[in-house]
C-alpha cells in the first residue's frame, strides 16, 4: 500500500481496540487484579507486596528451579501457580505497561489438564510441568494477533503455534501472557503506537530496554519467572540488563525459528534468535536444555543437530577470562566500569586468570552489521509504518532514516557486505585464539538503563550478533551515586562517546541495576552458561539484593 492511500481505519482507532482488548483480558481475572493507587511512585517494585495476597507473593517470588520441584511433587497445583502469576502479571501491566494480553482462559484450561494428569499418573507430564512462561508478542500463537509492533499488522493472525511453543507446551509449560515490543522491533527501547511505552520498574523515567522490554520489566516485577525473548542486536541482553534479570542469546539455529515474526525463513544476513529471559541463571539453562533435548532439528531441519552438552571446567589449568574494558569507541559509564573491575578483582582472588581483551575493529563490525540489517534500505519497515498512517517513533527514525549505513543493496553490494562479514568473523576468531581466553567479560550497554529514547549505541551487544557468539547478561550490583562519578580528566573517545558521556546522571540513576555480559565462541552456549554458573557460585553474584 502506498503512503498516499488512505488507511482502512485511523491508526488511533486500531490502537484503542488493541488496548481495550488487553484490558478485557485482565478484567476477566477471578479474583480480580488489585486496584492500583492513583499516583504511582517512580520505583514501583515494592507495590506488589503491599497489594497481593501473601500466597501469591510466595509462589511468584520463587525462581523456576525452586518452583518446579513443588509442582512436580504436587505440593502446589498448576492452577494455584497459574492463578498467582496471572494476578502478578496483571499488576505488572498496571505498573509499567508491559503486557499486550493476558491468556487466562488458555492458561487455566492447560493448568487444569496438567493437574488432572498428575492426579491420574502421580507424576509430572514433563520437565516444565505447570511452569508459567511469558512470551514476546511476535511469537506466533494459533488464532492470536501477531503485530511485530506495527499498527498495519494488527490483523495478522497466526495460523499455528510457533515451533518453540509446541516444544515448551509438550514439556508442561503454561503460557499465561504476551509481552510488549517496539515499532519495527529494532529499538533498545520498548515503545509502539499500539501499546505505548514500557517503563523500567526501578524508575519510570528510564527505559526497560528493547526489543524484549516487556519481558524484562515483567520478570523484574515477578509477573513471570521465565520468558521468551528474541535478539538480533541486543534485544534479550539489553532489557535483561536494564531490569536486573538474566537473559541469554544463544548461537543461531540451536533454538527453533519457525512460526514467529520478523525474519523470513532462510534469511542469513543477520540472524535473529529466540532465547530465554529469567529471574535466575538456572532458568536460562532449564529453558535451553529442555528445548535442545527435544531434538527440534527432527522437524525443523535448519537447526543444528546436536544435543545439550554438559561442559566440564578445565582441571589442569585455571579458567582464563578476558575483560573487554571498552570498545575504543564508547567508554562505559562509571558504574559499569566499577562492576567490571570489582568482578575482575574478585575472580583473580579466586584463582581465575584474568587478562585484558583488546577490542578488534569494533567500529568496522558496526558498519558491517548496520549495512546488513536493512538490505532493502528500510523500504519494508517504512511501508509498514506509513501504510497505517501511524507516526514514526523516535528510535525507528534514528535506526532507519538517520542511519547512514541503511541503503538499498543490489546483488553486488549485498555480496560485498556478506564477504566482509565472513572475513571479519575469521579475523576475530584469530584474535580470540591469540588471547586464548575461555570467555569474555564485557559491558552489555554503555551504561545502565537510559532515559527514554536515548539508547542509540548497540555495539556492546550487536558485536556478538555479527559474530554469532552466545552471550548472557546478568545482574552484578546497583548504581551508587557517590561512587559512580566520571573521571573529569578523561577526554571522549569519539563523537558517540561524547554523546553518551552527557547521558550519565548519577543522582538520577542511583539504585538502578548494573549488569555485565559473558560471551563465548560460536556454539559454546553450554560453556558460557557453565562458566557463569561457576563464577556466580565462586564470587557470590550478584553483590546486591535484587527483588
Enumerate how many helices there are, as a single number.
19
Strand arrangement across the biggest beta sheet: 1-3-2-8-10-9-14-15-13-11-12
Question: Under CATH, the topology of the largest domain is which?
Answer: Amidase signature (AS) enzymes
Low-confidence stretches: none
| Chain-averaged pLDDT | 95
Characterize the main sheet.
Answer: 11 strands, mixed
Fraction of residues in helices?
Answer: 25-40%
Radius of gyration: 22 Å
* Distance between the ends: 47 Å
CATH class of the largest domain: Alpha Beta
Q: Strand share of the residues?
A: 5-15%
Would you identify the CATH H-level superfamily of the largest domain? Amidase signature (AS) domain
Structure summary, number of beta strands: 15
Question: What can you tell me about this protein's structure?
Answer:
- Residues 80-529 form the Amidase domain.
- The chain has 547 residues and is α/β, with parallel strands linked by helices.
- It has two domains: 11-298, Alpha-Beta Complex (Amidase signature (AS) enzymes); 320-539, Amidase signature (AS) enzymes.
- It contains 19 helices and 15 strands.
- Strands 1-3-2-8-10-9-14-15-13-11-12 form an eleven-stranded mixed beta sheet, with helices on both faces.
- The chain is globular, with a radius of gyration of 22 Å.
Amino acid at each position: 500500500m502506498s503512503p498516499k492511500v488512505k488507511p482502512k481505519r485511523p491508526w488511533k482507532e486500531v490502537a484503542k481496540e488493541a488496548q481495550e482488548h488487553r484490558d478485557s483480558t485482565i478484567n476477566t481475572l477471578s479474583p480480580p487484579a488489585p486496584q492500583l493507587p492513583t499516583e504511582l511512585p517512580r520505583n514501583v517494585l515494592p507495590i506488589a507486596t503491599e497489594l497481593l495476597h501473601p500466597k501469591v507473593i510466595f509462589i511468584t517470588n520463587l525462581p523456576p528451579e525452586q518452583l518446579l520441584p513443588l509442582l512436580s511433587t504436587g505440593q502446589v497445583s498448576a492452577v494455584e501457580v497459574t492463578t498467582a502469576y496471572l494476578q502478578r502479571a496483571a499488576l505488572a501491566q498496571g505498573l509499567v505497561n508491559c503486557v499486550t494480553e493476558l491468556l487466562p482462559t488458555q492458561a487455566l484450561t492447560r493448568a487444569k489438564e496438567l493437574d488432572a494428569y498428575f492426579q491420574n499418573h502421580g507424576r509430572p507430564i514433563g520437565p516444565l510441568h505447570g511452569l508459567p512462561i511469558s512470551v514476546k508478542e511476535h511469537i506466533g500463537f494459533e488464532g492470536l494477533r501477531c503485530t511485530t509492533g506495527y499498527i498495519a499488522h494488527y490483523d495478522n493472525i497466526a495460523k499455528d503455534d510457533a515451533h518453540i511453543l509446541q516444544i515448551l507446551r509438550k514439556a508442561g509449560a503454561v503460557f499465561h501472557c504476551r509481552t510488549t515490543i517496539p515499532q519495527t522491533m529494532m529499538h533498545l527501547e520498548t515503545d509502539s503506537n499500539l501499546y505505548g511505552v514500557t517503563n523500567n520498574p526501578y524508575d519510570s523515567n528510564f527505559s526497560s530496554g528493547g526489543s524484549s522490554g516487556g519481558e524484562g520489566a515483567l520478570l523484574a516485577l515477578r509477573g513471570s519467572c521465565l520468558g521468551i525473548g528474541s535478539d538480533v542486536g541486543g534485544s534479550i541482553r539489553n532489557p535483561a540488563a536494564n531490569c536486573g534479570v538474566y537473559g541469554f542469546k544463544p548461537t543461531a539455529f540451536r533454538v527453533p525459528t519457525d512460526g514467529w515474526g520478523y525474519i523470513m525463513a532462510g534469511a542469513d544476513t543477520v540472524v535473529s534468535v529466540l532465547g530465554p529471559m529469567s529471574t535466575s541463571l538456572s532458568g536460562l539453562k532449564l529453558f535451553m536444555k529442555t528445548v535442545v533435548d527435544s531434538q527440534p532439528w527432527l522437524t525443523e531441519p535448519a537447526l543444528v543437530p546436536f544435543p545439550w552438552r554438559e561442559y566440564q571446567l578445565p582441571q589442569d589449568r585455571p579458567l582464563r577470562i578476558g575483560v573487554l574494558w571498552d570498545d575504543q569507541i564508547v567508554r562505559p559509564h562509571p558504574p559499569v566500569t566499577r562492576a567490571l573491575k570489582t568482578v575482575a578483582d574478585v575472580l583473580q582472588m579466586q584463582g581465575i586468570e584474568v587478562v585484558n581483551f583488546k577490542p578488534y575493529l569494533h567500529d568496522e563490525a558496526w558498519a558491517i552489521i548496520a549495512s546488513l540489517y536493512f538490505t532493502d534500505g528500510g523500504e519494508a519497515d517504512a511501508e509498514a509504518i506509513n501504510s497505517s498512517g501511524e507516526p514514526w517513533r523516535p528510535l525507528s527514525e534514528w535506526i532507519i532514516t538517520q542511519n547512514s549505513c541503511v541503503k538499498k543493496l543490489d546483488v553486488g553490494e549485498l555480496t560485498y557486505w556478506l564477504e566482509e562479514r565472513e572475513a571479519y568473523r575469521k579475523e576475530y576468531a584469530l584474535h580470540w585464539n591469540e588471547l586464548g581466553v575461555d570467555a569474555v567479560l564485557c559491558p552489555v550497554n554503555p551504561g545502565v538503563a537510559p532515559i527514554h529514547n536515548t539508547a542509540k549505541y548497540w555495539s556492546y551487544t550487536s558485536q556478538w550478533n555479527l559474530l554469532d557468539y552466545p552471550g548472557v547478561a546478568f545482574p552484578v550490583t546497583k548504581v551508587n551515586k557517590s561512587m559512580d562519578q566520571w573521571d573529569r580528566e578523561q577526554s571522549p573517545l569519539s563523537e558517540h562517546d561524547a554523546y553518551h558521556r552527557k547521558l550519565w546522571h548519577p543522582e538520577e540513576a542511583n539504585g538502578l541495576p548494573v549488569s555485565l555480559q559473558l560471551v563465548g565462541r560460536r556454539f559454546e552456549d553450554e560453556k558460557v552458561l557453565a562458566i557463569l554458573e561457576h563464577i556466580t557460585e565462586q564470587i557470590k553474584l550478584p553483590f546486591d539484593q535484587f527483588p
